[in-house]
Amino acid sequence: MRSSTSFCCWRAPAIVYQLYSLMSSEKWHQTISLALILFSNYYAFFKLLRDRLVLGKAYSYSASPQRDLDHRFS
């Protein structure tokens, strides 16, 4: 979970920089190639955040029944 957080922090500035480069570009071949790179980064970022949310909910769900059991027996 920690590595996905650091990866998110590394990926987000790269996406912002690529979006800025796409906006300031004047040549079409550069625009098309940057758009493809941006799309791949957005897709990877989406998958990473989705996995993080799912894992976070799974861990919180699996930890909550254990807390209830510990609370009952103490």
UniProtKB/TrEMBL annotation:
What is the annotated localization of this protein? Endoplasmic reticulum membrane
Q: Which domain of life is it from?
A: Eukaryota
Task: Give TM segment ranges.
Answer: none
Q: Identify one Pfam family in the record.
A: Tmp39
Q: Which family does it belong to?
A: Belongs to the TMEM39 family.
- Record's PANTHER family? FI21814P1 (PTHR12995), TRANSMEMBRANE PROTEIN 39B (PTHR12995:SF2)
Q: Which UniProt keywords apply?
A: Endoplasmic reticulum, Glycoprotein, Membrane, Transmembrane, Transmembrane helix
Function recorded in the entry? May protect the cells against DNA damage caused by exposure to the cold-warming stress and facilitates tissue damage repair during the recovery phase.
The protein's name: Transmembrane protein 39B
Task: Describe its membrane topology.
Answer: Multi-pass membrane protein
Organism equals: Apodemus speciosus (Large Japanese field mouse)
Chief location? endoplasmic reticulum
